């Protein structure tokens, strides 16, 4: 586990992500320093990054085709659509294709590589997945809000059930209730050179500080110690997406998010994020929450 992240929305106070508590094992304390030094490291060679999404292409894939709308209108050519599996892994991403005013999706959705033991690159068997849309105009990532099933390895051809270009995938920006509030969502990619996992944090006026169905995404059961993992913790609950309340009336202060991660002993784990995206949202600071002495606060709008 690592640092802390503080964001002050443009109209309200900062909130912080507390990448706390590394330390049930002595080796984890070392990982904190390694992570801090590697926070700006590039993804592994096998990985691909499109916009805010990092994923690992494999030989098992099928294309999802259709159309994307955002709040009832066609998505923009600068927008990016991605698939995320039930474990929180990004399983493919692609730019929206606009033709004659229609925003088309032609998205490769990758399956897990059975030959890479202990690594989860994408869809496993009957695992469900969902779609994410990165809105380039607002620099926000919006979830489709429904799970999809029926992924098939078609060796890069359109998948049955997902091969109709007239199918519309309707994304909707969460609306703020009367009373104000902000909606913010940002991803952090955790990687160890072999595995990659993207987790998301943010605020939303329709969320609570607890578990919100359709807003938060819970994490699967934790793997054995020493296995690659990343998750936000909130009390006894664990999340891949941790969205908190903002209704415009939260008292001045910070919102703390606790992000824990693990991996093989002495492995180098890196954290990466879109610093320009965070800079557009407010101020964010990552700080060591294990001892408070391993490194000073990191301005996440400048490094990432």
Order of helices and strands: EEHEEEEEEEEEEEEEEEEEEHEEE
Strand fraction equals 35-45%
- Count of distinct structural domains: 2
Rounded mean pLDDT score: 75
Count of individual beta strands: 23
The major pleated sheet works out as: 10 strands, mixed
Backbone shape? globular
Radius of gyration: 19 Å
Judged by helices, strands and strand pairing, the structural class is mainly beta
Output the number of helix runs: 2
Helix content: under 10%
First-last Cα distance: 17 Å
Residue runs with pLDDT of under 50 for 5 or more positions: 1-45
Describe the structure concisely:
The protein is mainly beta and 304 residues long. The chain has helices at 26-37, 275-281, and strands spanning 4-9, 14-18, 48-50, 53-55, 61-70, 73-74, 80-85, 90-95, 97-99, 102-110, 129-135, 140-143, 168-171, 184-191, 196-204, 217-218, 229-234, 237-245, 256-262, 270-272, 282-283, 285-286, 298-299. It has two helices and 23 strands.
Write up what this structure looks like.
This protein is mainly beta and 304 residues long. The protein has two domains: 4-41 and 175-299, no CATH class; 48-171, Sandwich (Immunoglobulin-like). Helices cover 6% and strands 39% of the residues. It is built from two helices and 23 strands. It has helices at residues 26-37, 275-281, and strands at residues 4-9, 14-18, 48-50, 53-55, 61-70, 73-74, 80-85, 90-95, 97-99, 102-110, 129-135, 140-143, 168-171, 184-191, 196-204, 217-218, 229-234, 237-245, 256-262, 270-272, 282-283, 285-286, 298-299. The strands form five sheets. Strands 1, 2, 14, 15, 16, 17, 18, 19, 20 and 21 form a ten-stranded mixed beta sheet that branches. Strands 5, 6, 9, 10 and 13 form a five-stranded mixed beta sheet that branches. Strands 8-7-11-12 form a four-stranded antiparallel beta sheet, with no helix packed on it. The two termini are 17 Å apart. Residues 1-45 have low confidence and may be disordered.
